[in-house]
Write a structure and sequence with these properties.
By secondary structure, this protein is α/β, with parallel strands linked by helices. The protein has one domain: Vaccinia Virus protein VP39 (Rossmann fold), CATH 3.40.50. It contains 6 helices and 6 strands. It has a 6-stranded mixed beta sheet with strand order 3-2-1-4-6-5. The longest helix is centred in the first third of the chain and has 14 residues.
């Protein structure tokens, strides 16, 4: 599993500079519907003025930028140093730290909300993310499909909804 994470991190490190442009220009394939899915993810999150949000896998900050526009306070984590650098250029006010799904940084901060949105099949990550979120004080994770290949994880401080 560590080798897989290194491979994924390396992929995103190489892709970081052109990532946003590539996603805007993607006519089809696994990136189809990226922008609409991202907007849907932002719309379903209960973010707003003063809500403290941890964006897990913040990447270049696309979701974070939409949440900041609601007045939310953002923190971000990502395993890719190059993606974090792109995010710093885009959102210099957001505290960013390198981290993984099982070792989430910003432990000193109490979050109202955490979000993990992906533009790829997320199912293999569920166990890792659940472990990391529980260690950070979240009790459950709800998964919502926001596009044909896009998923949003919405952790909760309380148990699963009935």
């Amino acid at each position: 599993m560590a080798q897989d994470q290194r491979s994924i991190t390396s992929l995103f490190d190489r892709w970081a500079r052109s990532y946003d442009c590539d996603l805007r220009q993607a006519p089809d394939g696994p990136l189809t519907g990226y922008r609409a899915s991202l907007c849907q993810a932002a719309a379903v999150l209960p973010a707003g003025p003063g809500v403290k949000v941890l964006d897990i896998g913040i990447g270049t900050g696309a979701l974070a930028a939409l949440l900041i526009a609601t007045g939310a306070e953002l923190w971000g984590t990502d395993p890719s140093p190059a993606m974090l650098e792109q995010c710093r250029e885009r959102l210099p006010e957001v505290p960013l730290r390198r981290g993984s799904l099982t070792q989430l940084p910003h432990a000193e901060q109490a979050f109202d909300l955490a979000a993990k949105w992906d533009d790829h099949e997320t199912y293999p990550l569920i166990g890792q993310l659940d472990e990391g979120l529980r260690a950070s004080g979240f009790a459950s994770v709800r998964w919502l499909q926001t596009g044909s290949l896009h998923w949003l994880a919405i952790p909760s401080k309380t148990g699963p909804e009935p």
